[in-house]
Amino acid sequence: MRYLLLCLTFLLAPVSQASDWIFVVNKDDTLWGFSQDNLKDVNRWKDLQRINNIADPKRLLPGTRIRVPLDWIKEQTSKAEVVALVGSATYIHQDEIEKPLRAGDQIRLGDEVVISAGSSASIRFADGTQITLHENSHVRFNYLSQYGESGMVDTRFRLERGRVDTRAKPAVGKASRFEIQTPSATAAVRGTSFRTTLKESDNISRIEVLEGAVAVAGTGGQRKIAAGYGTRVEPNKAPVRPKKLLPAPEFDLTPSPVREAHRLLHWQAVEAASHYRLELSTTSSFETIIWARDAEQAKSALPDVPDGEYFIRVRGVDALGIEGFSSTRPLTLDLHPSPPFSLAPTNHKTLYGDVPVLRWTAADEAAEYKLQVAQSDDFLSPLITQQLSTTDYTANQLPEQGAFFWRVASVSTSGEQGPFGITQQFRRSPIPNAPEASVEQEGKRISWGAGEKDQRFQLQVATDEDFAELVSDQILQSHSWHMDEEINQVHYLRVRVIEPDGFAGPWGALQRLYPPQDYDWLKMIGFGILGVMLL
Question: Gene3D superfamilies, per this entry (predicted)?
Answer without folding.
Answer: 2.60.120.1440, Immunoglobulins (2.60.40.10), LysM domain (3.10.350.10)
